Amino acid sequence: MKREWILAAALAAGISPALAADAPAKAEAKAPAAAALSAGEVRKVDREAKKVTIKHGPIENLKMPPMTMVFRVKDAAMLDGLAEGSKIRFRAEEADGGYVVTRLQKAK
Q1: Taking a C-beta distance cutoff of 8 angstroms, is the pair 71, 92 a contact?
Q2: Same domain as 86, residue 42
Q3: Predicted model pTM
Q4: Which of 40, 86, 90, 46 is nearest to 66 (CA)?
Q5: pLDDT tens for residues 52-78?
Q6: Could you tell me if 42 and 25 lie in one domain?
C-alpha cells in the first residue's frame, strides 16, 4: 500500500514512476545510520532475569540522556562473557513498556 501511495504521489507531482519506485530502497539504505550503537559500561549482569544494568552515555534513538539503568536483553546469549566493568556498545529500543537491548558488542 505504501508503494502505491508513493507512486500515486509521484505521478501527481510529475515525477517518473521509475524514480519514485526507488524511494523505498533509498530510505532503507539510510536505516543503518539510524541503528547507531551507544557506549556503556556494565554495572551488573542478571542472567536469570535476562537483564543487564548499564551506565551509558546518550542514547540518541531514544532521546535519552546519560544515566545508569536496567535493560532487558532480546536474547540471553547476549549476556555471555559480560561482567561488571565490561565496556560495551549497544542498541536499545523501546518495547513492551520497557527498554530492550537488541544489539550488544564488547567495545575494543
Answers
A1: yes
A2: yes
A3: 0.68
A4: 40
A5: 999 999 999 999 999 999 999 999 999
A6: no
What is the CB neighbour count within 10 angstroms for residue 62? 13
Query: Is 41 a residue whose pLDDT tops 90?
Result: yes
What is the rounded CA–CA span in Å between residue 28 and residue 58? 24
Query: Whole-angstrom Cα distance, residue 70 to residue 27?
Result: 32
70: DSSP letter: E
Residues in the chain: 108
> Domains in the chain: how many in total?
2
Grid cell of 87 as nine digits? 565496556
In a shared domain, residues 57 and 100: yes
CA distance 29 to 3: 16
Residues 46 and 95 in one domain: yes
What are 86-106's pLDDT values in tens digits? 999 999 999 989 999 999 999
Identity at 97, one-letter amino acid code: G
Residues 28 and 49 in one domain: no
Domain carrying residue 28 = 2-34
